[in-house]
Amino acid sequence: MRKxxxxxxxxxxxxxxxxxxxxxxxxxxxxxxxxxYQHYLEQIRSExxxx
Length: 51
What we know:
The protein is about 35% helix and about 10% strand. The chain has about 50 residues and is of the alpha+beta class. The chain has a two-stranded antiparallel sheet.
């Protein structure tokens, strides 16, 4: 397994956890945090075989 991109979690002001436990990036997070989150989602989809 590859090391997942967790840069977006390095600052708690950039994300929040929904009631169902899913972490979500805030819309006002810096561009690099948003890109990191998108990369993380792509990695998760790839690991799980989701297109």
